[in-house]
Amino acid sequence: MTDRPMNAPKVWGGLTQAELDDAYDQSVYAGNMATVAARYGSNSDVARSRLPAPERVSYGPTAKSAFDLYRTSGDARPIQIFVHGGAWKATTATQYAFLAECFTKAGAHLAILDFDWVQDHDGDLMPVADQITDAILWIAQNAQRIGGDPSQVYLSAHSSGAHMVGVALTRIGASAPKVIQGAMLASGMFDMAPVRLSARSAYVSFTDASEQALSPLRHIADITTPVVLAYGALETPEFIRQSNAFHDALTAAGKPSEVIIGQNYNHFEIIETLANPYSLLGAAALRQMGLDG
């Protein structure tokens, strides 16, 4: 971890600037980050070798406004929408094909979103949040067109994707409260105040207005979807705190919320369990969808 000068001032929650920067830098706490990311790719190659090619479906006018749809057999099936992480600035749907079999073999379609990166908008996250919210609503509104059941649309997401889905839940809950039946948010961020103070502000252009709008923790009243929050016990202290604080706020407001802690998993490893119907997140997601047998 970063060397810390003696008596450095605290900038957030008892953390110095260096400690806060570390707490929002996954590579500091996950030394095997590159290895696990490579495993996402190799496991996705294996999944693609066994599955029919996904259908590429557009939900908007730009090249990135599309998703990979992995179909199960039959129509009017539940739909799981997955929103990937990547610090808002990296990764694509193709890297997460390894998640598909868990859902398609259980009887659900899986839609893995692509969307713009923050650098596509000169550091502004607001258009990305708009795009992801629009994508979720498009899939819900066009569920029958893609062989799904509009009354059985669920969300899952990881890291910065979990943050974006948290934002989307506040927006959708305020305007269309019955659209999403459940959400699983793994290793997310839900209050942008400490993120804005961290080194991530070097590539994200926060303002007071965007910090407020992009902090789901501040819009608990608008959330109408049951939420499962998950994180690895080996994550950074801030990522652990963020999920627990969001859970506590949801619970205090009488909103359905559950926490899953992956012992001996770090930030990158925990989402791999979503690919296994018998592991932590896979089992929980299928249970939330009523597909656990």
Secondary structure blueprint with pairings:
Elements: E1 10-12, E2 15-16, H1 17-23, H2 26-29, H3 33-50, E3 55-58, E4 66-70, E5 77-83, H4 100-104, E6 109-113, H5 126-141, E7 148-158, H6 160-175, E8 182-186, H7 192-197, H8 208-213, E9 227-232, H9 237-252, E10 257-262, H10 280-289
Parallel strand pairs: 5-6, 5-7, 7-8, 8-9, 9-10
Antiparallel strand pairs: 1-2, 3-4, 4-6
Describe this structure in words.
With 293 residues, the chain is an alpha/beta fold. The protein has a single domain (10-289), classed as Alpha/Beta hydrolase fold, catalytic domain (Rossmann fold, 3-Layer(aba) Sandwich). The chain is built from ten helices and ten strands. The strands form two sheets. Strands 3-4-6-5-7-8-9-10 form an eight-stranded mixed sheet, sandwiched between helices. α6 (160-175) links the parallel β7 and β8. The N and C termini lie far apart (44 Å).
